[in-house]
Amino acid sequence: MNKKTGSFIHQLRKENNLTQEQLAEKLGVSNRSVSRWENGTTLPDIALMKCICDEFDISISELINGERQNSVPNEANTEEKAILKTKEVANIILELSKNESKQKTKAVTFYFSLGFLFLGVILLQTILLTFDIIEIPFLNKMQTIVIFLVVLITEVAGLYFNNKHKEFSPEELNFLLQDENNIQLRTADEMIQFARKNQTNILKQHKQAFKEITSNLGHDEYAVFTMLADEYSINDSPGPWHAVLVVTNQRLLACGETISGRMFTRYDTDCWMLNEIKSIYLENRDIIIETAKDKLKLKGEKFERFVSKIKKNIFERYSTS
């Protein structure tokens, strides 16, 4: 499976006239990682698979199986086969997630054990000197400092690997495989899970902003797209930070954290009807959404892949203008 998926990534990269360095930059990884994927040495992390699919406009199933699926059904039981294929892909992803979790556990155990081993050497010397068991320390001052630095580095490395991988729950896996063209998000948790497909740095402030938006949804209103932003402004006036953007079947909503008084914060929500949206484009890496009266600017990182998604959800699917 590694080699087939790797060959497919290589093929897609060539079709899009991208170098390994360019693809790596878009995905936020090293070009060495891309090379290892294409050679079949390793597979991309689970969280990166969705980013690769978005970049090349393919499905998770196609990426895992290493080939494009036929868009025109030619057999009567195509739907049944598609369901079985999706289950097969889900099982593969779950297995990959478990393997990543095991590798993470091994790495964490190794680095923490190494750190405690070196720390034990320092403590042993201290105890032996304290009880006059030895008169001359077997570690001089410089060696002690070096070992202490090694302990610090190994513990930091252990913490890094401990936070590097998050195993997918069945609910999150369901969202990962769900068809975005038919998605309906009605709760804050669902909006968070959708945003997590492409952006993993979700803070508690983002979660609160999604809850605020959920409380503003109408009876027949549901979200079809969600994303995070560092902050947003309207008509160049400073606006909320830790912001979220939500496209529903009726409106475009933006919400974020603002200061209320000297000590307290609150969450403000701005909204526009979909038929008010006139244009959406990228300007200096910021997303600009213009209406007849307002200019909404979203600030963040790696927003290039989101512009087409916002356009699709507003203009192609729901805009009545």
What does this structure look like?
By secondary structure, the protein is α+β, with helices and mostly antiparallel strands. The chain folds into three domains: 2-65, 434 Repressor (Amino-terminal Domain) (Orthogonal Bundle), CATH 1.10.260.40; 96-164; 180-316, Roll (PH-domain like). Helix content is 52%, strand content 18%. The chain is built from eleven helices and seven strands. Strands 4-3-2-1-7-6-5 form a seven-stranded antiparallel β-sheet, with helices on both faces. It is globular and about 85 Å long.
Can you describe this structure in just a few lines?
The chain contains eleven helices and seven strands. With 321 residues, the chain is of the alpha+beta class.
What topology emerges from the helices and strands here?
Blueprint: H1 2-15, H2 20-27, H3 31-38, H4 46-56, H5 60-65, H6 78-130, H7 141-164, H8 170-177, H9 188-196, H10 204-216, E1 223-234, E2 241-248, E3 251-260, E4 264-273, E5 277-283, E6 286-291, E7 295-299, H11 304-316
Antiparallel strand pairs: 1-2, 1-7, 2-3, 3-4, 5-6, 6-7
Helix pairs in contact: 2-3, 6-7, 6-8, 9-10
